[in-house]
Amino acid sequence: MPKKTKEETMSFGARLAALRKAAGFTQQELANEVGTSRRMIAYYEGQTAHPPTTLLPAIATALRITTDELLGQAPVKRIAKSRDTRLERRLQQIERLDPTERRQIMQVIDAFIERGQLKRKAQNKQAA
């Protein structure tokens, strides 16, 4: 009989917590992504609680894994973690906004980028 891997022997709650942390989510951020409360995520990460089956696909999608990987039925394929998952999630939320709101956000971002570039130029001139 083959040996069980660490992921296979891990409880659902411990697996969920490990996957959430590996994806760079806090409990609150994951709760916001799947439409539940932080308290429920903490409850699901406990030793005895499991989320309702209707919530499993949303959790798996937020964590960018399959439901089989979430349930421990398949090994988790490690995907290279992006440099800033919080920023990436914010950008995804911005993409879902209507075009007018997206345009306004882009103007604010452009203003910050331009300000940073001007600061660097000024610092380079002072250093020279």
Number of domains: 2
CATH fold-type name of the largest domain: 434 Repressor (Amino-terminal Domain)
**Into which percentage range does the β-strand content fall?**
under 5%
Helix coverage percent:
55-70%
Report how far the terminal alpha carbons are from each other: 70 Å
Secondary structure topology:
Layout (H helix, E strand, L loop, with lengths): L5 H4 L2 H11 L4 H8 L3 H7 L11 H8 L3 H5 L13 H11 L3 H29 L1
Helix pairs in contact: 3-4
Question: What features would you describe in this structure?
Answer:
The protein is mainly α and 128 residues long. The protein has two domains: 6-71, lambda repressor-like DNA-binding domains (434 Repressor (Amino-terminal Domain)); 97-127. 65% of the residues lie in helices and 0% in strands. The chain contains eight helices and no strands. It has helices spanning 6-9, 12-22, 27-34, 38-44, 56-63, 67-71, 85-95, 99-127. The model has no long low-confidence stretch (mean pLDDT 85).
Write a concise synopsis of the structure shown.
The protein has helices spanning about 5-10, 10-20, 25-35, 40-45, 55-65, 65-70, 85-95, 100-125.
Please supply descriptive tags for the structure shown above:
65% helix; 434 Repressor (Amino-terminal Domain); 2 domains; mainly alpha; 128 residues
